Amino acid sequence: MNIKEKLLEDLKEAMKARDTLRKDLLQILRAAILQVEKDQQVTLDESGVFEILAKEHKKRAETVQELARSNRTDILEKNRAEMALIEAYLPAQLGEAEIEALVRAAIAKADAHSARDMGAVMKVLMPDIKGKADGQLVNTIVKRLLV
Q1: Is 69 helix (H, G, I), strand (E, B) or coil?
Q2: What is the DSSP letter of 115?
Q3: Any idea of the CA torsion for 50, 75, 15, 34, to the nearest 10 degrees?
Q4: Tell me: the pLDDT tens digits for 19-72?
Q5: CA-based Rg of the chain, rounded to a whole angstrom?
Q6: CA gap 2, 89 in Å, rounded
Q7: Which CATH number applies to 96-146?
Q8: Does domain 3-87 have CATH number 1.10.1510.10?
Q9: Mind listing the pLDDT tens digit for each residue in 120-146?
Q10: What is the pTM of this model?
Q11: What are the backbone angles phi and psi of residue 143, rounded to the nearest 5°?
């Protein structure tokens, strides 16, 4: 069962269980996937779906950061719950040590020596880590290792 089928099955289960938070979130996720497929006129593969899920997770993480300064605990908790639900569908995120090992391999493969070569390193690295690691963390590690 691929990820799109799993999202549909879980949506059906959430509807039967009258779990409105889960149902609403799964509808939003499926709509985002279908919108991208319609706009680009393609059928997304697993990595494409994971990319969309990661974007939705990132949106909620940014919202949580903004709401942490306010008194809107109801919306804050809803976003945290949605983040937890999305994380269940995302592949396991790579740890910093794993990312660093992949970055070192990409630097060697791209024959990079300075920060000017960052684009070449990222070009080699991104197919391996797309959807599996936070882009900002990867960027920070690449910069640190290329200095």
Answers
A1: coil
A2: G
A3: -40
A4: 999 999 999 999 999 999 999 999 988 888 988 998 999 899 999 988 888 878
A5: 18
A6: 11
A7: 1.10.10.410
A8: yes
A9: 998 998 888 877 887 888 889 999 988
A10: 0.76
A11: -60, -45
